[in-house]
Amino acid sequence: MPTLVHLHDWPDRAVIGTVGRPGQRTFYLQARTGRRTTSVAMEKEWAAVLADKIDLILDELMTEDGNRYSVPAEATPELVDEDPVDQPVEEDFRLGSMRLSWDAATGQVVVEAFPLVEVESEDEAAALEEIEPEEAMILRMPVGSARAFAERARRVVRAGRPLCPRCGEPVDPDGHVCDPGDA
Questions:
Q1: Exposure of 92 by Cβ count < 10 A (0-12 exposed, 13-18 middle, 19+ buried)?
Q2: pLDDT for residue 71
Q3: Contact by Cβ (8 Å): 137, 50
């Protein structure tokens, strides 16, 4: 069966956002093109890494000789989307792997997201590498939008529960008890 591809080329909106309260948030990579929205559930750590890797690609482009694209050093404030994810969130799939690249022909950062596939053995995992995924999301963003996307993703990641100054663990709204071994 061919892969169902959720393609967002020059999307109207692309964000990392959350649903739920700190400590119980679900993170989403969400893109909208016209009336079509794709929402991919992901772990908080994926969001942080994606933001860092996008910035790394853009920073490298800024220093590349002969680069014809005007890559902003920082996110342009008016491009940083502060709104919540589009509701209702209908999860298309849970993120299992991701690929990030640069398309020099179009001047876009390309994020490819693939679903999580549960396996029970190393043999099954090895076999999966040769099988086309059932679904994929391909998100293509110009440099300014990509920089703003990364800035928002960092803000969303930091907006979680505050960390305890003694043990460094997240503090829940109703309190926190430090583990003596952590302090």
A1: buried
A2: 87
A3: no
Give me the phi and psi of 171, to 5 degrees please. Answer: -100, 125
Provide CATH code, domain 4-121+132-158.
3.30.2450
Convert the pLDDT of each residue in 130-171 to its tens digit.
678 889 999 999 999 999 999 999 999 998 877 788 887 778
Predicted TM-score (pTM) of this structure: 0.85
For tokens 């996110």, name the residue. 75
Report angle CA 70, 137, 93 to the nearest 5 degrees: 140
pLDDT-based confidence at 54, cuts 50/70/90? Answer: very high
DSSP the chain: ---EEEEEES-SEEEEEEESSTTS-EEEEEEEETTEEEEEEE-HHHHHHHHHHHHHHHHHHHHSTT--S---SS--GGGS--SPPPSS--EEEEEEEEEEEEETTTTEEEEEEEE----SSHHHHHHHTTSPPSEEEEEEEEHHHHHHHHHHHHHHHHTSPPBPTTT-PBPBTTB----TTT-
Side chain identity at residue 88, one-letter code? P
